[in-house]
């Protein structure tokens, strides 16, 4: 069946098309596969609105909070406490109307307030600086605008409430009763605000749509606790209105001295403050709230001083009596240290050689000695974690399917939605039973190894022990660079050679084995890499086939980025990094995985679809088809000035769809939409990513064919950005195609993959416990979008924790796939990931794009970029700091899967 282009609406800026593309509607459901019923973490929502039409509305009001001096107050920090006091103090003026407050500036009622506007002055709190987090803490309300940093010393506040609009309960009721409806996000936001109010009244911590019980701490490391809680959000689906509820976790900073926090987070065990990395400390502390011990007030940290406390000076005005008895005013420079010691008579034991905390701003700094500052409790830690902390967080938050289900059942009992007055008055009821959905188990594809034998995956994995690589690479010479010295290198080399030969790669002993000198081990990572490269330089000409690099630690080693950059960009030599955990002997499975990566990097293929199976994918096996995987990697938390990295991988050597090449570009920080797909230099010249991908596809395909079809897999975008993908990114791809041939326009299919969601599936065992669903489960009914074309696929075998399915949204399909054809293709692409002998959770092209973006991000050094304002959209203005160029890769690297 040939599908038509997606629905049409209005034109958008940046598109040459006169019409706007919208996500396509679902045309059919899949039928292939064995049927299986599974449970999901969705609770059905029913709604019977009041019969009185005047009461059948939700009313929305704007809330403005100021102190007694009419200065804006940061509602996110203290708003709930103020509004609780409003409810108590002005009960009669508000006619006893119950309300739900979002913790920021939105108020929801079921009945309208007697007046459209209220100015409520003199709202008094007992102690606005010390007790303001005694009730639920709410972070992330409706507004993202910057707030005033005025401390909350005032105990008197003024509140302005103004009517904004109202929503009919009937529209939500129709969604709950399966009636097709374009329900606005505002209506869902109203329901979410009511739930947040319910949780806040039960004295829970509230962060956006997540709720945390105060005692539910799991413990952590580095002055941080892991809090377990629950997320909830309303979703309109084919089956009606549901509440999606899931277990979630957040990091909370332990209250205490700032110095102790920095020593703990940076893992400085000897407690020596001169070992603190102050650049990292500045990023960690910015935005956190502290209480100063000398005056018992709370402030928000804006940064640290450039100088130590003894050297950081400021002006202080002095008033002295002159010789004639007239008061004379003078200005004196005094250090922060001297001021607190001599003028405030405060003993400072540690601050002399430490920076100061800035509780003012960059223009008008206010400096406080570090040892006088203590972090207040119940603050989220949103900065980057160390490798050890990330690993610990994963272990702490991992829940088996049965544990997760039991936690959710406990949360349902605890929330007791039936007792919530506003939910009850609006006619909303939430069931306590998890929804059953019908899924289908798709059969695994048949793969082929180098023995010309078929590989038949079972439970999402296949045995590769006695198999040879489908297309082994040729290794003429190779080198070893050892930064570790913690393992038996001679034995490791011989075991690796033996494993490679078993897989079909002819591999001799390395040309040379270079071991890092002891005197360099304490140097910076870049220095260590430069010293090693200098030592190896004679062996780099002629260029070796690849270099094996032994790192001193597993994952995120500081050496990794600089080493990759020097080898790939400066010398054009592929390199494989390893970090063996066993010093004496490395197991065979580990070596096999290393060989798979080496072979893929050097242009080989480890396995591919069998001819018979690939021919069943007739829409891509018989028509020249280009597959693209697209992703954008952003800087870590606390480093908003770092550029975003856009990566696009393209399939090559058609009719194969197992081999890919990557192109990587930098773009402005936090920009999700890729802007370098089309970069016209003239009418017939284009330097964009897509032009290079088209050229590569043609040169690696027999008879230099151009693609007649392009399938685009896009990762990392939310539903609000689907229109940008369709009307900006897709338009750039079409323009790039027309540069080659004006009349050439291949058929396009656009699919977005999402992993950051809270939908989970569970299979019930005979003993009434729950386990992960089998690999290949696909769900496209009941809990999917009511009109759009989407489906959930759990392709992998979840052996640890609870499996998270990938959520695929088909935004456009000009190729004309049937539902079964498209779902089969997507499922199959989860089995050609060359780094593993298991199915992966999302299609391989997206994983490759993610790997390429992440690897290049580590290659870009801090000196390559300068701090600058960040952007929230791709069409960034010219006010940004200059972007660093990504590392240059020569042809022998760029045409390989160097990112594997």
Query: Which parts are unreliable, with pLDDT below 50 for 5 consecutive residues or more?
Result: 1-16, 128-153, 866-878
Instruction: Return the structural class.
Output: alpha+beta
Annotation, overall tally of beta strands: 41
Strand content: 25-35%
**How confident overall, as mean pLDDT?**
85
Portion in helices: 10-25%
Q: What is the distance, rounded to the nearest whole angstrom, between the alpha carbons of the first and last residues?
A: 37 Å
Question: What attributes characterize this protein structure?
Answer:
alpha+beta, 900 residues
Short description:
The chain is 24% helix and 27% strand.
Describe this entry's structure for a reader.
The protein is 24% helix and 27% strand. By secondary structure, the chain is an alpha+beta fold. α10 packs across α13 and α12 crosses α19. The longest helix has 19 residues. The chain starts with 33 loop residues before the first strand and ends in a 6-residue tail after the last helix.
